[in-house]
Design goal:
Blueprint (H helix, E strand, L loop, with lengths): L2 E2 L6 E8 L4 H9 L7 E4 L9 H9 L8 E6 L8 H11 L5 E2 L7 H11 L17 E5 H14 L11 H6 L5
Length: 176
């Protein structure tokens, strides 16, 4: 069951996505975020070979009833101090925006993040056409309902995301 964040308008739920071999690591991460009712979601078909998108679909489907926002973390994420409070603050600041909580150092998004930080900015829009960093991602629950759920129900799992997939368009400004 998700718990209310710092405000009464945001209710955050969370899932940690993992391969069954990493279930113990995922369980430790989930246990470190109890306020969100964090669930561990394992790859539903590990015998089919590597399939992060398959596991991500299941993790995004784990949005708790009543949640306004859902966080999906990969099992090897190491949250910063006060992670839950920082995410709640971010959701209050940008309630209708998908939020990537990680950007690769050597990506365009990482470069944009560093440039923004040097100027004192807390957030930076995603670089158009760049992949969506998915190690730690927050979506408003209605974005999931509008964008991901129909995609999940009707599309076979691609082997990678493409610039037009919901994974990328949601991170590039909240569209579908």
């Amino acid at each position: 069951m998700p718990t209310e964040s710092v405000t009464s308008t945001a209710v955050i739920s969370a899932a940690v996505m993992a391969h069954p071999r990493r279930a113990a690591e995922a369980a430790r991460l989930a246990a470190s975020l109890p306020a969100w009712g964090t669930r561990v979601v394992v790859d539903p078909s590990p015998e089919a070979g590597p399939g992060a998108l398959r596991t991500a679909r299941a993790a995004w489907a784990a949005v708790a009833p009543g949640a306004t926002h859902h966080v999906v973390l990969q099992d090897d994420v190491v949250p910063c101090r006060e992670f839950a409070a920082q995410v709640a603050h971010a959701v209050r600041e940008l309630p209708d925006t998908p939020l990537a909580l990680y950007a690769n150092w050597n990506s365009w998004n990482g470069a944009a993040t560093r440039a923004a930080a040097l100027q004192g900015a807390s957030w930076v829009p995603a670089v158009p056409g760049e992949w969506t960093p998915s190690l730690a991602l927050v979506l408003p629950a209605r974005t999931w309902t509008r964008c991901w759920l129909p995609y999940r129900r009707t599309s076979p799992a691609p082997t990678r995301t493409t610039p037009s997939s919901p994974a990328n368009s949601a991170g590039a400004g909240g569209g579908c």
